[in-house]
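Entry 14. Ran structure prediction on the chain below.
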Amino acid sequence: MTPESHSRTGTDDLMSGPPPSCPAHGTGPGGLRRLYGPEAEDLQGLYEKLRAEHGAVAPVLLHNDVPFWMVLGHGENLHMISNPALYTRDSRTWSAVRDGTAGPDHPLMPLIAWQPICSMAEGDEHQRLRGAVMGAMTTINTRDLRRYINHWTQELVNQFCERGTADLVSQFAEQLPMAVLCEVLGMPEEYDNRLVHAARDLLKGTETAIASNEYVMSVLMRLTVRRRAEPEEDFTSHLINHPAGLNDDEVGQHLRLVLLAAYEATANLLANVLRVVLTDPGFRAQLNGGQMTVPMAVEQSLWDEPPFSAVLGYFAKQDTELGGQRIRKGDGLFLGIAPGNVDPHVRPDLKANMRGNRSHLAFGGGPHECPGQDIGRAIADVGVDALLMRLPDIELAVEEHELRWTASISSRHLVELPVRFRSASPQAVMERPGVRTVPQQRPDWEISTPTPRPSPTSPAPALEPEPSAPAPEPVHRLGAWRRLVRWWRGY
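Output, structure tokens:
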């Protein structure tokens, strides 16, 4: 039994207090701050105002002034996501849904509405569905994945390398994750701009979001039917054939979950890492000098600019207390990833290097921790590294203050990242990497075994002298370790 709390308020009390017009308070009923509208244009600044006013857990207002909680503390977020006995992701328990305050027409309902997928299921059903997803994830070959990432990085760079300019958001960060995920799911032929734009659009809540969602689902359901009849060695086939026995609708919905969550998160992660590399000379110097690896840079970015700033939502299964606030049964709570990552209790100095520290909230935690986080990390690690190797002199083509973002209640997305570099020739790229035990040999690799000498008993035939030719330019031979690294990256 949860003891009675002596904290300031529960969401049932949010509509009481000073009138909305009171200048000493926020712009919503009860003096509460809204997570939408003009004040929410700077969400990071708003989070810090909420932290100063309420502490680790703050009452806020969603669209239509529906009461909610924003969890700002790192420890409080971990407590919430790690206690399924107290908090659920089943939005049908949300009091605003039960009383109709947040009906089907609520602007955030596409993000909150319950679906029969593992991220919203509980108990045995959660174990069954998540077990199938995790089982299919374990079949992804890491070496093949890295080859896909490098292959598509080279393909994308080839499309703009001769021009000497590019936008690394629309031409790279938004393209690479979708291309790789189509390979992983088993539908490389479906990768095109239409699928990229549909995936971006349906997450924005635009007027065309429903049509975009229908297109994405039509692609995934065609794939499901095809792989049900003709399974191959891909994620979709393994998901279908898992002992959990998912039906076609469950398979399609979970393919959508994996595709959209991994795509949006990784696109934002790629853009964020590249922006820091291009705008922070110290950061780039550490990369170039070997003091920091690309994976370390990715983890730093996951602390400073997580791909999702907040996740809707968790819901209280009973009366409880969190961060000094009284949380009542049916209350809704945000997983506050961005504010939790800068909690002064865990990061008193935001400039301190967090390299190697994976205790950030970027991928959630507990029973609903992101199952595809290693795919996202791999795409960012290999993609950024391969891009910088192809275009080592790349630099920002505008002033840093000219960069623009679009922000929503759940993420902050860089609009564009214009760059310039020395024009380079396209590289030859295999049509599509296959499953191989060893990479295909390249004729220009250095062979370490000595060239066999002619046997004394078998004299070599005399060769006619060749015309003299200009002496070739001296070639710098890579060392053994550098050659091994290049082979691992797929060059």
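The radius of gyration is 26 Å. Will compare against last week's run tomorrow.
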